[in-house]
Amino acid sequence: MRKLLFSLIATSAIFYSANAQTKISFEASEGYAIGSLDGQNGWAIWGDAVSDMTQVTNVQPTDGTNSYRLVSDENFTGEMMGIEKEISAFTKTDVSLDIKIDELDGSDQAVDLYDLNYNPIASFYFDYDGNINAYDGTSYQVVGTWDANTVYKLKYVVDLPAKQVDYYVNGDLLLTGSVGAATSLDIIDLTTDNYSSGYIVDNIQIADATLATSEVTKKDIFRVYPNPTVDVVNFDVAGKINSVEVYDAAGKLVKATKDGARSLDVSALSKGNYVVRVKTESASYTKKVIKK
Known about the structure:
Elements lengths: L3 H5 L5 E3 L4 E4 L10 E2 L7 E3 L7 E4 L9 E4 L10 E6 L5 E10 L7 E6 L5 E7 L4 E5 L4 E6 L5 E9 L4 E6 L2 E7 L8 E6 L6 E10 L4 H7 L2 E4 L6 E6 L3 E7 L5 E5 L5 E3 L6 E9 L3 E8 L1
Antiparallel strand pairs: 1-2, 2-17, 3-5, 4-7, 5-6, 6-17, 7-16, 8-13, 8-17, 9-10, 9-16, 10-11, 11-12, 13-14, 14-15, 18-19, 19-22, 20-21, 20-23, 23-24
């Protein structure tokens, strides 16, 4: 039951007390050894995963000399499986990591966050069709697309008092969701359906997000209104707008402009859910928009 929601709708590390940060980069200096990750520093496999699937390796690290590699043994059962670890988190926590997936048309892969009772908090889910999905507290929403053998920098900002989680990919805010019933962040889970392909994860960082709240708030002010909309969306964002892109629920670009306007006519689009990406001179912002 512990993984049922995410599957159906789709201790040890270096501590840096100066900035309240935990880093897991699978290095020897952190107590990791080449070979199966199962049993190392609190990591444990679950479901139908076997130890040989979960490897600490020196293949294609993004930080240091080691990385974690999920190797599919192609024993596909239709169920998710993986390896997990208990983590120390904060009232408001940044969880970030690098991920690179082997191939399209292979396995479904995900990185999930839970509390100790396995109440779901957050999930990035990479489906075999090439969509990046994020869990909004109720269901998965398509927030972008992914390419094989490409490093993506994922970040979750989990604000427990606000019952909110923000999802970032490569620095772009793609979705804001709810953390549901969870009252603590306790577990990170690297999962797969083990169809035919694997992935690499490295440079997991868990940091106290309250340390930079005021700076982040000023930088990341971005509002799209009205939302839902019938014909026009307006943008409230600092700085000059360089471009606006609109993607449908399948991740296809359906409208784009570079005229610098702070509004966009979407009357010709079909009813449904879209992702609007606004790029300024200094940042990129993304928001889900509903067209009525």
